[in-house]
Write a structure and sequence with these properties.
about 30% helix; 2 domains; alpha/beta; Rossmann fold; 14-stranded mixed beta sheet; globular
C-alpha cells in the first residue's frame, strides 16, 4: 500500500534509533528539574486525544492542592523564547499555540509555559517559581528533559498500519519505543470497533499497566454568549463543522452521533493558523450549507474567536474523558512520583 515509502521510513527509524541509543548510554546530557516531571506523550504525530487527558490530570492534581506547571512547545506559534502563557494576550493562540492556550483557559490555577525547547522551558519555569510537579505535554520523544513518569497514549481508533514509522505511517519512532513507557493509556475506547481494540491490545507489552479512557462530546457552548446546549438539544439539527486537528474523522464521527453533519464541512491542516480570508470562506460555506449550527473544537475556538466579526454564530465543543475500570488510578499513579 505505502511500500514505496518504506526505504525512507527505514532511514528515519535508524536515525531515531541512534539518538535513543545515545541517550540510553548517557552520551547526551539530560536536564533534571528539581521537582518531579511527568511526561504525557504518544508514538504518533497527533490526534490521540492527549490534550483532554492532560486536562483531566491537571484538574485532579489541582483538586488535590498541588501546584502544577505545564511545559509545552510553541509549535507553529510565534513565541521564540520560554514564556508563561497569557490568555489575555490579544492573539494568544497565535503567539503561544492553540493547545497551551486551551489548557491555560481551562485551568487558571495552573501555570502553562511554552517555548521552542521543552527542557529549556522547564528550566525557565522552575527558575521563576516553585512547583510540586511539572507535566510535559507531548514529551515522550523529548529525551533531553529527564522525567520521573512516562505516560504514553495510544488512540484505539488509529489503524495499526499507522504505527509504521514516518513517512510510511504516522509514528515518530518504532513500536519498540513503547518499552520506555511506564503507563499506557488507550484513548477513545468507546469509539473503536471491538475487533480493532483487541488487535491493539494484542500488540501491547505484557509488563505495562494499561488504562482505558472513553471520549464523548456532551455539549456545545456559544463562543460569544456562553450559552450551553446539551447534545440532546442538537438532535436532528444540521451541523456544519470546521476544524484544524490531526483526526477530523473522529470529531466528525462523534458529531454524527449528535446531529446531521453537513457534507460541506471544512477541515484544515492540524494547528492551522486561521486568517481573515479563511473566516470569510467559512462563513460563506456555512450560509450555503443552510446548516443550523456552525460547530468547531475547543482547540480551534481559541483561534477563531479572534477573527469572527460575529462570534455568536460559532459554537465550541469540548471532549470529556472518562476512566473505564478503576476510577482514580491515573491520579494515583501520578501522585506516587510526589512521595
Amino acid at each position: 500500500m505505502r511500500a514505496y515509502l518504506r526505504p525512507l521510513s527505514f532511514l528515519y527509524d535508524q536515525v531515531v534509533g541512534v539518538k535513543n541509543n545515545l541517550y540510553d548510554r548517557g552520551v547526551f546530557g539530560v536536564f533534571k528539574a528539581p521537582v518531579p516531571v511527568v511526561s504525557i506523550g504518544n508514538l504518533t504525530v497527533g490526534g490521540t486525544g492527549k490534550t483532554p487527558i492532560t486536562d483531566f490530570c491537571l484538574k485532579s492534581l489541582v483538586a488535590d492542592g498541588k501546584k502544577v506547571a505545564v511545559i509545552s512547545r510553541s509549535y507553529r506559534a510565534d513565541a521564540s523564547a520560554p514564556c508563561l502563557v497569557d490568555v489575555d494576550h490579544p492573539f494568544a493562540a497565535r503567539y503561544f499555540g492553540d493547545e497551551p492556550v486551551l489548557l491555560a483557559q481551562a485551568n487558571p490555577q495552573v501555570s502553562v509555559y511554552v517555548g521552542p525547547s521543552k527542557w529549556r522551558t522547564a528550566r525557565y519555569a522552575v527558575e521563576k517559581h516553585k512547583y510540586d510537579l511539572l507535566i510535559v505535554d507531548d514529551g515522550f520523544q523529548h529525551r533531553r528533559l529527564h522525567r520521573d513518569l512516562n505516560i504514553v497514549i495510544l488512540d484505539a481508533t488509529e489503524s495499526l498500519s499507522n504505527y509504521e514509522v514516518l513517512p510510511e505511517g504516522r509514528a515518530r519512532e518504532s513500536w519498540a519505543g513503547i518499552e520506555r513507557a511506564d503507563v499506557l493509556i488507550l484513548s477513545k475506547c468507546n469509539l473503536a470497533p471491538e475487533d480493532e481494540l483487541k488487535a491493539l491490545e494484542a500488540r501491547l507489552p505484557k509488563n505495562k499497566e494499561v488504562l482505558y479512557f472513553g471520549y464523548e462530546i456532551q455539549q456545545c457552548q456559544n463562543v460569544k454568549t456562553g450559552q450551553v446546549l446539551h447534545r440532546d438539544e442538537l438532535k436532528g439539527k444540521k451541523l456544519f463543522l470546521v476544524s484544524a486537528i490531526a483526526r477530523p474523522d473522529v470529531f466528525e464521527k462523534m458529531m454524527r452521533e449528535i446531529g446531521e453533519v453537513s457534507n460541506q464541512s471544512l477541515h484544515f491542516r492540524d494547528h492551522h493558523q486561521y486568517t481573515a480570508d479563511d473566516v470569510k470562506n467559512i462563513e460563506n460555506a456555512f450560509k450555503k450549507s443552510q446548516a443550523d449550527f456552525l460547530v468547531t473544537t475547543g482547540k480551534d475556538a481559541v483561534k477563531l474567536r479572534q477573527l469572527f466579526n460575529d462570534t455568536a454564530i460559532l459554537w465550541s465543543t469540548s471532549l470529556e474523558v472518562a476512566e473505564s475500570g478503576r476510577k482514580g488510578r491515573l491520579h494515583e499513579i501520578i501522585t506516587q512520583v510526589l512521595r
